Amino acid sequence: MYETVKMLHSYWAYLTLLLIVIATLNALFKYFGKKEFHPLDFRISLFTLIVTHIQLLIGIVLLFAYLDVISGAGMKEIMGNSVLRSNVVEHPLMMIIAVVLITIGYSKHKKKLTSTPKFKMLAIFYTLALISVLAKIPWNTWF
User: Fold this and answer.
1) Which of 14, 27, 65, 133 is the most core-located residue (most Cβ within 10 A)?
2) pTM
3) pLDDT averaged over 10-residue windows placed end to end, the chain, 143 residues
């Protein structure tokens, strides 16, 4: 089960990262270009929200499966091993923060009535989320 969930989490991550980049760039370009907010912009931000939440759920399942694999390791061993610490503590925490930022940005943009504040909320929170994701992607296993 662990290998299947790991594979699903890994492949879904490509889609997740792609959508976060697209949504962030869309918000930034349209905010600075003073463009109007269209239904496509809403769909891009919503689809990014949905995909990131699915990735989070897959990641939580993977984390519990991974904890089952390393159940004999204590916290001292996990924190002392940089790979284990990254997989069990740092990566999940940063990804949760990224999903929270995307959720906050999406929720705040819906409350704004005009285009510029909508794009501003999306640009700020989605950019912070993108930075969080890029900071803790395990790049050595991606390529």
Assistant:
1) 27
2) 0.89
3) 86 95 96 93 95 95 80 77 82 95 95 91 96 89 70
